[in-house]
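Input chain follows. Return structure tokens only.
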Amino acid sequence: MPHYRISKHPILEPLPGREVPFTWNGQPLSAREGEMISSALFANGVRIFGHHPKDGAPQGIFCANGQCAQCMVLVDGAPLKACMTPIADQMDIYPMDGLPVLPPLQPDARYGQISTVDIPVLIIGGGPSGMSAAIELAERNIPLILADDKNRLGGKLVLQTHRFFGSINAVYAGTRGIDIARKLENKVRSLPDVDVWLNSTALAVFSDQKVGILKDNHEYVLVKPQVLLSASGAREKNLCFRGNTLPGVYGAGAFQTLVNRDLVRPAERLFIVGGGNVGLIAGYHALQAGIQVVGLVEALPQCGGYKVHQDKLARMGVPIYTSHTILSANGSDQVESVTIARVDDAFQPIPGTDQSFACDTILIAVGLDPVNEFALKAKEYDMQVFSAGDSEEIAEASSAMFSGKIKGLEIARLLHAAHEPVPEDWYRTAEILKSHPGKVEDLPQTHPEDGVFPIFHCNQEIPCNPCTSVCPQGLIEIDRDDIRKLPVFLGRQVKKTCIGCERCVTVCPGLAITLVDYRKSKDHPGQAMVTLAHEYLPESIQAGDMVTVLDVNGGILGQAPVESVRSIRKNDHTLLVKLRAPLSIARLIAGIQVQQPWVSEEMPDIPAHIEDDAIVCRCERVTAAELRSLIRQGYRDLNELKIITRAGMGACGSKTCHALLLRLFREEGIDLTEVTDQVKRPLFVEVPLGAFAGFKEVKS
């Protein structure tokens, strides 16, 4: 069986860990010890994890974050989520075909007492906001528990290989997310008042103001905090289209988990749905991992993510189809192609505009919903509760860090461990960091054709200022009161000149600064030297190569020879590529074409759409047609729809279909004030019932 490991990556180092044997459906395979079962299966080329008991539909991963139940497999006879269960030596794993058989009772099983832990603060979630809050609290000697359901701290930071935007002083802007995760974790673990619980899933908040946690994946513990901080992040939104449950259709977070956390190549040809920052960044990560990105669709007239992310993807050679939507994922047992179409002003597909492209994976990146059920239930039970990061409001990770910092100090004040008020400039910084992209304006390039100076290819107002902090001459300026303003090169306004140190080129998170050098133009008339950042493997580009150079929007400017390629440790894996280019295009060059145009060629024949209606409830395989029929009959209660169709009754607890159910009502012209919402389950995550009785497994 072929292996799909990423052996070389421009940013990430090979992962440690010995190879261990396991079996899949009776076949011997090997995996890296401790990686999740889902990653081990993908690394061995397995995409189908089972078949649904209702209609035999193939099942694969979707969220890879424990939020759904599509990746369920049988592990040594027990049904477990492949994305949350680490592989172990000699594991016997089978696909989940149909319903699992309950294990036999153990007559001599042991049951223990359920312990209760009293603690001043419980933080649910060890991502950027949770760790930032923990640091503020522990520095004021407030004991706390930091609980996270993963095997390491960092949250989504551990998936982010790109440099971060924001403020270089406030939130590590210019540093890669994976490195920010290490910095925060090292700080957290250096503080004695933080008790870190990894592999520990928060299950429920109860009326006696206790929080149930499955600690270390086996011991059920009740935690009674004086204050609860929900820093549990967000879950990805689902999308309803034909073929949306085929293996190969999954969320951007799942993709980044496989590629950037586990160094597994989950695709050969990827198509992206959604032009926010998540989808744009995931496309860039795919290219870095050697995966072809066939294209990206965005239903709006323009992408909602940062323009520098969009520009970066476009100038790598990826076509971006705005005002388009996905019609269907096509294939029998897994994705084989995708069909898209242009949409009108009402976002309805325009007949006759269909296009199809060959691909094996469709990445869904259409937004996030906050994981806020813990905070809502805590408020219902009159607990002292705060929310931070995406659990409070969806924004960038830089915003989540600062949000956690603020909430940490607010909680410390509540517990009388801090008397100073939260500084007003903290709130101001927080608002700036979570702001949406601002206006776009073209910056005039008025520099004379002599000397050396930076060219800024970022022309949209976003919170970002690393370039101002690294210039040794102090020649780059951004409004100090509002880092969303565009950078300005002071040039001849001051008595200093650019020395061509290239630091601004290296640190720019959007790879949106180039350096143009005219100092040797006399030796090469009509030409200038252009330096740009390049984040691919060093062997992918060499001195003497002739490359295709592109403008900021991905337009081809021509060919240019590579004069040199520099790779030094202080640049943190960023290559500095020097090109010699004609004066007519030197200032316009923003990138080098990485992906060839043939990758994104349209299929000559459009596959027939799958006849079955789109699936709304993935767990119970309930179609939009079934639900629309009931809505048109007058049903307005989601609980009634659940009773009749089982929509929302599956293992995920309606996490993946709830928003789609409400969307169906809106599409039918029903005001949501007329709709009765579902009764929420008391448990937010699946757990063996024996855990509540202190069940201890008896080893024979």
